[in-house]
């Protein structure tokens, strides 16, 4: 219905609450933006999460949105800033979570082994507890993905679900882990 409209026309319709105009903007830019974020993040689920969050913000602010140049410039700038915010707020926690998960298979050495060992033991307990709190399917996908290092395709085959379902559960699990392990992010930032 809105395919022939310009971005600017769609934004005006969006401000009037036309959800189909929003859908058209979303489908017009979603894949391009996910690829744009993926270049930096190297993770499809995280890239999709960032793009989804930007579009959610646009929907929530649709009546007051102010775009000075083009919608394309606005959306790419928004996604770029959201990506930088994501990196800033999650990179330290993600690094430590991955190191804890990898610690079971790799010998660990450190300059301050005692302090790090205590910290990692506490973090391992928190990761284990957070994993146990995940919904059943999300927990299965998380363990296969992050601990057993299965590919999304292998997980989909193993659990007899679609790859999109696997991506959803990985995104959900990582978001839950980051929220649950937020105290560690504060301790190590």
Describe what you observe in this structure.
This protein is mostly helical. 78% of the residues lie in helices and 0% in strands. It contains 9 helices and no strands. It has helices at residues 7-15, 19-41, 44-60, 71-103, 113-133, 136-147, 152-159, 163-180, 182-188. The protein is elongated and about 55 Å long. Mean pLDDT is 79; it is low at 105-112 and 185-189.
How much helix is in the residues? over 70%
Helix tally equals 9
Name the average pLDDT. Answer: 79
Given the C-alpha coordinates, what overall shape results?
elongated
Q: What structural category arises from helix and sheet content?
A: mainly alpha
Beta-strand residue percentage = under 5%
Distance between the termini: 48 Å
Most strands sheet: none
Which oligomeric state applies? Answer: single chain
Residue runs with pLDDT of under 50 for 5 or more positions: 105-112, 185-189
Round the Cα radius of gyration to an integer and report it: 20 Å
Got a strand count? Answer: 0
Helices and strands, in order, run as: HHHHHHHHH
């Amino acid at each position: 219905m809105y395919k022939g409209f310009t971005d600017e026309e769609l934004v005006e319709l969006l401000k009037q609450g036309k959800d189909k105009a929003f859908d058209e903007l979303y489908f017009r830019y979603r894949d391009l933006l996910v690829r744009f974020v993926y270049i930096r993040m190297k993770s499809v689920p995280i890239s999709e999460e960032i793009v989804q969050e930007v579009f959610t913000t646009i929907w929530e602010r649709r009546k007051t949105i102010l775009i000075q140049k083009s919608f394309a410039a606005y959306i790419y700038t928004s996604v770029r800033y959201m990506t930088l915010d994501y990196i800033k707020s999650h990179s330290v926690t993600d690094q430590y979570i991955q190191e804890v998960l990898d610690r079971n298979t790799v010998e660990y050495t450190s300059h301050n082994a005692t302090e790090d060992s205590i910290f990692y033991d506490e973090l391992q307990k928190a990761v284990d507890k957070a994993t146990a709190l995940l919904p059943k399917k999300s927990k299965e996908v998380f363990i296969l993905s992050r601990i057993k290092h299965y590919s999304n395709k292998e997980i989909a085959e193993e659990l007899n679900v679609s790859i999109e379902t696997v991506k959803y559960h990985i995104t959900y699990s990582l978001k839950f882990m980051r929220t649950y392990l937020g105290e560690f992010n504060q301790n190590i930032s």
